[in-house]
Write a structure and sequence with these properties.
The complex is a heterodimer of chains A (about 240) and B (about 230). Chain A has about 240 residues and is of the alpha+beta class. Chain A has five helices and nine strands. In chain A, helix 1 crosses helix 2 and helix 4 packs across helix 5. In chain B, helix 2 runs parallel beside helix 4. Classes of the chains: A alpha+beta (about 240), B alpha+beta (about 230). Chain B: Belongs to the RRP40 family.
Protein backbone atom coordinates (compact mmCIF):
# COMPACT_ATOMS: atom_id res chain seq x y z
CA UNK A 1 0.00 0.00 0.00
CA UNK A 2 1.57 3.30 -1.00
CA UNK A 3 2.01 5.97 1.65
CA UNK A 4 -0.12 9.11 1.44
CA UNK A 5 2.88 11.24 0.47
CA UNK A 6 4.24 8.57 -1.94
CA UNK A 7 7.35 7.89 0.10
CA UNK A 8 9.03 4.49 0.27
CA UNK A 9 8.51 2.69 3.58
CA UNK A 10 12.11 3.31 4.66
CA UNK A 11 12.31 6.86 3.33
CA UNK A 12 12.41 9.81 5.71
CA UNK A 13 10.97 13.18 4.78
CA UNK A 14 13.19 15.94 3.41
CA UNK A 15 15.30 17.42 6.20
CA UNK A 16 15.97 21.10 6.64
CA UNK A 17 17.78 22.99 9.36
CA UNK A 18 18.96 26.47 10.29
CA UNK A 19 21.63 26.98 12.95
CA UNK A 20 21.81 30.03 15.19
CA UNK A 21 18.67 31.69 13.87
CA UNK A 22 17.66 33.18 17.25
CA UNK A 23 19.48 36.31 18.38
CA UNK A 24 19.16 36.42 22.11
CA UNK A 25 19.88 32.82 23.10
CA UNK A 26 23.33 31.21 23.39
CA UNK A 27 22.60 28.58 20.77
CA UNK A 28 19.63 27.76 18.59
CA UNK A 29 18.48 25.57 15.75
CA UNK A 30 15.46 24.89 13.63
CA UNK A 31 14.98 21.30 12.55
CA UNK A 32 12.34 20.28 10.02
CA UNK A 33 11.38 16.93 8.55
CA UNK A 34 8.82 17.58 5.85
CA UNK A 35 6.18 19.80 7.43
CA UNK A 36 7.09 18.85 11.00
CA UNK A 37 9.21 21.71 12.26
CA UNK A 38 10.72 22.47 15.64
CA UNK A 39 12.73 25.37 17.07
CA UNK A 40 15.16 24.88 19.90
CA UNK A 41 16.95 27.56 21.89
CA UNK A 42 19.59 26.83 24.51
CA UNK A 43 20.85 29.06 27.32
CA UNK A 44 23.87 27.82 29.13
CA UNK A 45 25.72 27.65 31.36
CA UNK A 46 23.78 30.38 33.20
CA UNK A 47 23.08 31.25 36.82
CA UNK A 48 20.79 28.88 38.66
CA UNK A 49 18.40 29.47 41.54
CA UNK A 50 19.96 28.42 44.84
CA UNK A 51 17.05 26.06 45.39
CA UNK A 52 17.80 24.08 42.20
CA UNK A 53 21.58 24.33 42.42
CA UNK A 54 23.60 21.11 42.20
CA UNK A 55 27.05 21.39 43.72
CA UNK A 56 28.78 18.91 41.42
CA UNK A 57 27.11 19.43 38.06
CA UNK A 58 24.88 21.60 35.91
CA UNK A 59 21.11 21.37 36.16
CA UNK A 60 19.40 20.63 32.86
CA UNK A 61 15.95 22.12 32.36
CA UNK A 62 13.77 21.38 29.35
CA UNK A 63 10.69 23.29 28.25
CA UNK A 64 8.56 22.08 25.35
CA UNK A 65 5.80 24.21 23.91
CA UNK A 66 3.35 22.82 21.38
CA UNK A 67 2.58 24.57 18.09
CA UNK A 68 -0.89 25.57 19.27
CA UNK A 69 -2.66 25.81 22.61
CA UNK A 70 -1.30 25.47 26.12
CA UNK A 71 1.18 22.75 26.91
CA UNK A 72 -0.20 19.65 28.60
CA UNK A 73 0.76 16.21 29.83
CA UNK A 74 1.89 15.02 26.39
CA UNK A 75 4.35 17.88 26.22
CA UNK A 76 5.67 17.06 29.71
CA UNK A 77 6.42 13.63 28.28
CA UNK A 78 8.49 15.08 25.44
CA UNK A 79 10.31 17.25 28.00
CA UNK A 80 11.19 14.26 30.13
CA UNK A 81 12.28 12.33 27.02
CA UNK A 82 14.63 15.13 25.93
CA UNK A 83 15.94 15.68 29.45
CA UNK A 84 16.55 11.97 30.01
CA UNK A 85 18.36 11.68 26.69
CA UNK A 86 20.60 14.68 27.13
CA UNK A 87 21.38 14.31 30.83
CA UNK A 88 23.46 11.37 29.70
CA UNK A 89 25.16 13.21 26.86
CA UNK A 90 25.82 16.69 28.31
CA UNK A 91 29.03 16.80 30.35
CA UNK A 92 27.22 18.50 33.22
CA UNK A 93 30.09 18.05 35.66
CA UNK A 94 32.17 20.54 33.66
CA UNK A 95 29.94 23.42 34.74
CA UNK A 96 28.84 22.82 38.35
CA UNK A 97 26.34 25.20 40.01
CA UNK A 98 24.91 26.35 36.71
CA UNK A 99 21.82 25.82 34.61
CA UNK A 100 21.53 24.64 31.04
CA UNK A 101 18.10 25.57 29.81
CA UNK A 102 16.67 23.97 26.69
CA UNK A 103 13.56 25.60 25.23
CA UNK A 104 11.79 23.77 22.45
CA UNK A 105 8.97 25.28 20.45
CA UNK A 106 7.08 23.13 17.98
CA UNK A 107 6.29 25.15 14.90
CA UNK A 108 4.24 22.55 13.11
CA UNK A 109 3.52 19.00 14.23
CA UNK A 110 2.90 16.57 11.40
CA UNK A 111 4.03 13.44 13.21
CA UNK A 112 7.39 12.38 14.73
CA UNK A 113 7.67 15.64 16.66
CA UNK A 114 9.49 13.98 19.55
CA UNK A 115 12.26 12.77 17.22
CA UNK A 116 12.45 16.24 15.66
CA UNK A 117 12.66 17.78 19.15
CA UNK A 118 15.64 15.57 20.04
CA UNK A 119 17.38 16.34 16.74
CA UNK A 120 16.79 20.07 17.11
CA UNK A 121 18.13 19.94 20.67
CA UNK A 122 21.34 18.22 19.54
CA UNK A 123 21.96 20.93 16.97
CA UNK A 124 21.14 23.79 19.36
CA UNK A 125 23.42 22.37 22.06
CA UNK A 126 26.25 22.04 19.55
CA UNK A 127 25.59 25.60 18.38
CA UNK A 128 25.70 26.84 21.99
CA UNK A 129 29.01 25.08 22.58
CA UNK A 130 27.67 23.11 25.54
CA UNK A 131 30.14 20.25 26.17
CA UNK A 132 28.62 17.06 24.81
CA UNK A 133 29.84 13.51 25.11
CA UNK A 134 28.25 12.68 21.79
CA UNK A 135 25.72 13.82 19.25
CA UNK A 136 22.25 12.27 19.37
CA UNK A 137 20.06 11.48 16.37
CA UNK A 138 16.48 10.26 16.64
CA UNK A 139 13.97 8.69 14.28
CA UNK A 140 10.45 7.32 14.51
CA UNK A 141 8.82 4.32 12.94
CA UNK A 142 5.20 3.12 12.80
CA UNK A 143 3.74 -0.33 12.23
CA UNK A 144 0.60 0.05 10.14
CA UNK A 145 -2.53 -2.09 10.29
CA UNK A 146 -1.36 -4.19 7.33
CA UNK A 147 1.90 -4.99 9.13
CA UNK A 148 4.13 -2.69 7.09
CA UNK A 149 6.72 -0.70 9.05
CA UNK A 150 7.13 2.88 7.84
CA UNK A 151 9.74 5.37 9.06
CA UNK A 152 9.11 9.01 9.94
CA UNK A 153 5.30 8.63 10.03
CA UNK A 154 3.09 11.65 9.43
CA UNK A 155 0.39 12.52 11.95
CA UNK A 156 -2.17 10.73 9.78
CA UNK A 157 -0.08 7.56 9.58
CA UNK A 158 0.75 7.58 13.29
CA UNK A 159 -2.93 7.94 14.21
CA UNK A 160 -3.89 4.90 12.15
CA UNK A 161 -0.87 2.80 13.17
CA UNK A 162 -0.86 -0.30 15.37
CA UNK A 163 2.21 0.93 17.18
CA UNK A 164 4.62 3.85 16.99
CA UNK A 165 8.27 3.66 18.08
CA UNK A 166 10.83 6.40 18.56
CA UNK A 167 14.51 5.62 19.03
CA UNK A 168 17.45 7.93 19.67
CA UNK A 169 21.03 6.81 19.21
CA UNK A 170 24.36 8.30 20.18
CA UNK A 171 26.57 9.31 17.25
CA UNK A 172 29.43 6.92 18.05
CA UNK A 173 26.99 3.99 18.29
CA UNK A 174 25.55 4.90 14.91
CA UNK A 175 29.05 5.10 13.47
CA UNK A 176 29.89 1.67 14.82
CA UNK A 177 26.70 0.18 13.39
CA UNK A 178 27.41 1.84 10.05
CA UNK A 179 30.89 0.32 9.83
CA UNK A 180 29.50 -3.20 9.53
CA UNK A 181 28.94 -4.07 13.21
CA UNK A 182 25.92 -6.17 14.09
CA UNK A 183 22.91 -3.99 14.78
CA UNK A 184 22.46 -5.66 18.16
CA UNK A 185 25.70 -4.13 19.42
CA UNK A 186 24.32 -0.57 19.52
CA UNK A 187 22.16 0.49 22.41
CA UNK A 188 19.70 3.34 21.95
CA UNK A 189 19.84 6.27 24.38
CA UNK A 190 16.08 6.70 24.22
CA UNK A 191 13.20 4.38 23.34
CA UNK A 192 9.52 5.16 23.28
CA UNK A 193 7.11 2.48 22.06
CA UNK A 194 3.34 2.77 22.11
CA UNK A 195 0.55 0.45 20.93
CA UNK A 196 0.35 -3.32 20.41
CA UNK A 197 3.39 -4.90 18.85
CA UNK A 198 5.39 -8.11 18.81
CA UNK A 199 9.11 -8.48 19.46
CA UNK A 200 9.59 -9.00 15.73
CA UNK A 201 7.83 -5.68 15.03
CA UNK A 202 10.03 -3.96 17.58
CA UNK A 203 13.21 -5.37 16.05
CA UNK A 204 12.10 -4.35 12.59
CA UNK A 205 11.41 -0.80 13.77
CA UNK A 206 14.72 -0.72 15.62
CA UNK A 207 16.68 -1.52 12.46
CA UNK A 208 14.71 0.95 10.37
CA UNK A 209 15.15 3.72 12.94
CA UNK A 210 18.86 3.03 13.26
CA UNK A 211 19.28 3.42 9.51
CA UNK A 212 17.15 6.58 9.49
CA UNK A 213 19.12 7.99 12.43
CA UNK A 214 22.29 7.42 10.40
CA UNK A 215 20.91 9.62 7.66
CA UNK A 216 19.75 12.25 10.16
CA UNK A 217 23.16 12.28 11.81
CA UNK A 218 24.94 12.64 8.46
CA UNK A 219 22.62 15.54 7.66
CA UNK A 220 23.29 17.28 11.00
CA UNK A 221 27.03 16.76 10.55
CA UNK A 222 27.00 18.38 7.14
CA UNK A 223 24.96 21.33 8.41
CA UNK A 224 27.20 21.99 11.42
CA UNK A 225 30.45 21.43 9.54
CA UNK A 226 29.29 23.85 6.87
CA UNK A 227 28.68 26.59 9.41
CA UNK A 228 32.03 26.06 11.15
CA UNK A 229 33.94 25.92 7.87
CA UNK A 230 32.35 29.20 6.85
CA UNK A 231 33.25 30.86 10.15
CA UNK A 232 36.79 29.50 10.37
CA UNK A 233 37.62 30.57 6.83
CA UNK A 234 37.05 34.14 7.91
CA UNK A 235 39.18 33.89 11.03
CA UNK A 236 42.07 32.34 9.08
CA UNK A 237 42.26 35.27 6.65
CA UNK B 1 47.53 26.32 10.07
CA UNK B 2 47.83 24.41 6.85
CA UNK B 3 44.67 22.37 7.09
CA UNK B 4 41.54 23.01 9.06
CA UNK B 5 39.96 19.94 10.52
CA UNK B 6 36.43 20.40 11.75
CA UNK B 7 35.44 18.18 14.67
CA UNK B 8 32.05 17.59 16.24
CA UNK B 9 31.19 16.33 19.73
CA UNK B 10 31.93 12.63 20.04
CA UNK B 11 34.64 12.59 17.36
CA UNK B 12 37.62 10.63 18.60
CA UNK B 13 40.88 12.55 18.32
CA UNK B 14 43.95 10.63 17.31
CA UNK B 15 46.56 11.65 19.86
CA UNK B 16 49.15 9.08 18.87
CA UNK B 17 52.51 10.75 18.40
CA UNK B 18 55.17 10.07 15.83
CA UNK B 19 57.96 10.04 18.39
CA UNK B 20 58.94 7.00 20.46
CA UNK B 21 58.72 8.64 23.89
CA UNK B 22 55.06 7.87 24.24
CA UNK B 23 55.08 6.33 27.70
CA UNK B 24 56.39 9.41 29.44
CA UNK B 25 54.39 11.93 27.45
CA UNK B 26 51.66 13.95 29.10
CA UNK B 27 48.86 15.10 26.85
CA UNK B 28 47.50 18.59 27.37
CA UNK B 29 43.85 18.90 26.46
CA UNK B 30 42.52 22.40 25.97
CA UNK B 31 39.01 23.74 25.49
CA UNK B 32 36.63 21.49 23.58
CA UNK B 33 38.67 18.35 24.15
CA UNK B 34 38.23 15.87 26.99
CA UNK B 35 38.99 12.34 27.96
CA UNK B 36 35.86 10.24 27.64
CA UNK B 37 36.33 6.71 28.97
CA UNK B 38 39.59 5.47 27.44
CA UNK B 39 39.76 7.88 24.53
CA UNK B 40 40.36 11.52 23.84
CA UNK B 41 37.38 12.98 22.08
CA UNK B 42 35.99 16.35 21.08
CA UNK B 43 33.19 17.73 23.26
CA UNK B 44 32.52 20.89 21.25
CA UNK B 45 32.12 21.59 17.56
CA UNK B 46 34.89 23.63 16.01
CA UNK B 47 38.24 23.56 14.30
CA UNK B 48 40.79 21.22 15.84
CA UNK B 49 44.21 22.69 16.54
CA UNK B 50 47.22 20.83 17.84
CA UNK B 51 50.80 21.41 18.80
CA UNK B 52 52.69 18.17 18.45
CA UNK B 53 55.82 19.54 20.16
CA UNK B 54 53.97 20.41 23.34
CA UNK B 55 51.46 17.57 22.90
CA UNK B 56 48.54 19.96 23.06
CA UNK B 57 45.13 19.65 21.50
CA UNK B 58 42.31 22.16 21.55
CA UNK B 59 39.17 23.06 19.64
CA UNK B 60 38.46 26.62 18.56
CA UNK B 61 34.72 27.18 18.49
CA UNK B 62 32.45 30.19 18.35
CA UNK B 63 30.13 30.60 21.30
CA UNK B 64 28.02 33.32 22.82
CA UNK B 65 28.11 32.41 26.49
CA UNK B 66 31.33 33.29 28.26
CA UNK B 67 33.06 30.77 30.51
CA UNK B 68 35.86 32.58 32.38
CA UNK B 69 39.47 31.52 31.90
CA UNK B 70 42.40 32.84 33.91
CA UNK B 71 44.32 35.75 32.40
CA UNK B 72 41.70 36.78 29.88
CA UNK B 73 40.73 40.45 29.59
CA UNK B 74 37.03 41.09 30.10
CA UNK B 75 34.66 44.04 30.01
CA UNK B 76 32.13 43.97 32.84
CA UNK B 77 29.44 46.04 34.48
CA UNK B 78 29.36 46.64 38.24
CA UNK B 79 26.05 45.30 39.56
CA UNK B 80 26.53 45.52 43.32
CA UNK B 81 28.94 46.62 46.02
CA UNK B 82 29.71 44.38 48.97
CA UNK B 83 31.94 44.87 51.99
CA UNK B 84 34.87 43.07 50.39
CA UNK B 85 34.45 44.03 46.77
CA UNK B 86 32.24 44.67 43.78
CA UNK B 87 30.04 42.13 42.04
CA UNK B 88 30.66 42.51 38.30
CA UNK B 89 28.57 41.04 35.49
CA UNK B 90 30.97 39.64 32.90
CA UNK B 91 28.40 37.48 31.08
CA UNK B 92 29.38 34.26 32.82
CA UNK B 93 27.04 32.04 34.81
CA UNK B 94 28.06 33.63 38.11
CA UNK B 95 28.97 37.28 38.57
CA UNK B 96 32.66 37.95 39.10
CA UNK B 97 34.12 39.36 42.30
CA UNK B 98 36.29 42.47 41.96
CA UNK B 99 38.08 43.12 45.30
CA UNK B 100 38.05 46.75 46.49
CA UNK B 101 41.84 46.85 46.49
CA UNK B 102 42.43 45.23 43.09
CA UNK B 103 43.30 48.55 41.45
CA UNK B 104 46.58 50.29 40.71
CA UNK B 105 47.88 52.05 43.81
CA UNK B 106 44.80 51.27 45.87
CA UNK B 107 45.19 51.34 49.65
CA UNK B 108 42.69 50.95 52.46
CA UNK B 109 42.47 54.75 52.73
CA UNK B 110 42.60 55.57 49.06
CA UNK B 111 40.69 53.35 46.68
CA UNK B 112 38.42 54.00 43.70
CA UNK B 113 34.73 54.20 44.46
CA UNK B 114 32.71 52.65 41.63
CA UNK B 115 28.99 53.22 41.30
CA UNK B 116 26.61 50.46 40.22
CA UNK B 117 26.47 50.51 36.42
CA UNK B 118 30.12 51.45 35.94
CA UNK B 119 31.87 49.65 33.09
CA UNK B 120 35.27 48.20 34.00
CA UNK B 121 38.03 46.59 31.98
CA UNK B 122 39.63 43.82 34.01
CA UNK B 123 41.66 40.66 33.87
CA UNK B 124 40.33 37.32 35.13
CA UNK B 125 42.45 36.38 38.16
CA UNK B 126 40.67 33.28 39.44
CA UNK B 127 38.62 31.04 37.20
CA UNK B 128 37.64 27.49 37.92
CA UNK B 129 34.40 25.64 37.63
CA UNK B 130 33.70 25.30 41.38
CA UNK B 131 34.36 28.90 42.45
CA UNK B 132 32.89 32.21 41.46
CA UNK B 133 35.30 34.00 39.13
CA UNK B 134 37.49 36.79 40.47
CA UNK B 135 38.78 39.70 38.40
CA UNK B 136 41.31 42.47 39.01
CA UNK B 137 41.91 45.88 37.47
CA UNK B 138 45.72 45.74 37.67
CA UNK B 139 48.54 43.31 37.13
CA UNK B 140 49.12 41.83 40.59
CA UNK B 141 52.77 41.05 39.73
CA UNK B 142 53.82 44.55 38.71
CA UNK B 143 51.16 46.57 40.55
CA UNK B 144 50.56 48.60 37.37
CA UNK B 145 47.15 49.10 35.81
CA UNK B 146 48.33 48.15 32.29
CA UNK B 147 45.24 49.68 30.74
CA UNK B 148 42.75 47.99 33.07
CA UNK B 149 40.36 49.99 35.20
CA UNK B 150 37.17 51.98 34.97
CA UNK B 151 35.93 52.75 31.46
CA UNK B 152 34.40 56.19 31.82
CA UNK B 153 31.89 57.36 29.24
CA UNK B 154 31.80 55.58 25.92
CA UNK B 155 29.49 52.83 24.76
CA UNK B 156 29.48 49.07 25.36
CA UNK B 157 27.94 46.44 23.12
CA UNK B 158 27.94 42.65 22.86
CA UNK B 159 29.22 40.38 20.11
CA UNK B 160 30.02 36.69 19.72
CA UNK B 161 33.05 35.29 21.53
CA UNK B 162 34.63 34.34 18.20
CA UNK B 163 34.45 37.93 16.96
CA UNK B 164 35.87 39.22 20.26
CA UNK B 165 38.81 36.84 19.92
CA UNK B 166 39.50 38.14 16.42
CA UNK B 167 39.18 41.80 17.50
CA UNK B 168 41.76 41.44 20.25
CA UNK B 169 44.38 40.61 17.64
CA UNK B 170 46.40 43.78 16.94
CA UNK B 171 46.04 43.00 13.23
CA UNK B 172 42.23 42.92 13.38
CA UNK B 173 41.31 44.28 9.95
CA UNK B 174 38.15 46.15 10.93
CA UNK B 175 39.79 48.02 13.83
CA UNK B 176 42.83 48.92 11.76
CA UNK B 177 40.69 50.12 8.88
CA UNK B 178 38.56 52.23 11.23
CA UNK B 179 41.61 53.54 13.08
CA UNK B 180 43.19 54.85 9.91
CA UNK B 181 40.04 56.88 9.22
CA UNK B 182 38.76 58.16 12.57
CA UNK B 183 40.22 58.42 16.08
CA UNK B 184 38.54 56.28 18.75
CA UNK B 185 39.26 54.31 21.91
CA UNK B 186 38.39 50.64 22.14
CA UNK B 187 38.53 47.94 24.83
CA UNK B 188 37.78 44.38 23.76
CA UNK B 189 36.80 41.80 26.36
CA UNK B 190 37.07 38.13 25.52
CA UNK B 191 33.64 37.76 27.13
CA UNK B 192 32.11 39.12 23.95
CA UNK B 193 31.79 42.75 25.06
CA UNK B 194 33.35 45.67 23.31
CA UNK B 195 33.59 49.19 24.70
CA UNK B 196 34.24 52.15 22.42
CA UNK B 197 34.66 55.85 23.04
CA UNK B 198 34.72 58.60 20.45
CA UNK B 199 34.21 62.33 20.25
CA UNK B 200 30.73 62.32 18.74
CA UNK B 201 27.74 59.96 19.15
CA UNK B 202 27.45 59.61 15.36
CA UNK B 203 30.99 58.22 15.19
CA UNK B 204 30.22 55.81 18.05
CA UNK B 205 27.24 54.46 16.14
CA UNK B 206 29.33 54.11 12.99
CA UNK B 207 32.12 52.22 14.74
CA UNK B 208 29.75 49.94 16.66
CA UNK B 209 27.93 49.06 13.44
CA UNK B 210 31.16 48.46 11.57
CA UNK B 211 32.46 46.10 14.25
CA UNK B 212 29.18 44.19 14.48
CA UNK B 213 28.98 43.90 10.69
CA UNK B 214 32.51 42.51 10.45
CA UNK B 215 31.47 39.19 12.04
CA UNK B 216 31.17 37.38 8.71
CA UNK B 217 33.53 39.45 6.56
CA UNK B 218 37.13 38.72 5.64
CA UNK B 219 39.93 41.30 5.72
CA UNK B 220 39.30 42.66 2.24
CA UNK B 221 35.55 42.94 2.73
CA UNK B 222 36.14 44.64 6.10
CA UNK B 223 38.27 47.36 4.51
CA UNK B 224 35.67 47.84 1.77
CA UNK B 225 32.82 48.08 4.28
CA UNK B 226 34.68 50.59 6.45
CA UNK B 227 35.58 52.66 3.39
CA UNK B 228 31.93 52.82 2.33
CA UNK B 229 30.79 53.75 5.84
CA UNK B 230 33.37 56.52 6.12
CA UNK B 231 32.41 57.93 2.73
CA UNK B 232 28.77 58.08 3.72
CA UNK B 233 29.54 60.00 6.89
Amino acid sequence: MPRPDRRENDQIRALHSILGLLNRVDGSAQFSAGSTSVYCGVYGPVDVKVYDEKLDRAVIEVKFRPAAGVSGTKDRWVESAVRGTFEREILAQMHPRTLIQINIQAREDDGSADAAAINATTMALVDAGVPLRDMVAAASCAVLADGAAVVDPTLEEAAAAQSVHTFAFAGSDIGRAGSGGASGSTSPVYVDSRGDFSVADYDRCYDLCLRSAQRVLAFMRTAIEGKIAKESQISVV
Amino acid sequence: MAETKVVLPGDIIDTSLDSDEEESSVLRLGPGVAQIDEQVSAVAAGVLHSDNEKKQWWVVSNKRRYVPAEGEPVVGVVVARHGEGYRVDIGSAQGALLPLLAFEGATKRNKPNLAVGTVVYARVAVANSVMDPEIECYNSHTGKSEGYGELAGGFMFKCSLGLARRLIDSKAPVLNALGSGIPFEVAVGLNGRVWINTEAPATTVLIANAIKNSEFLDAKQCRQMVKELLEKQ
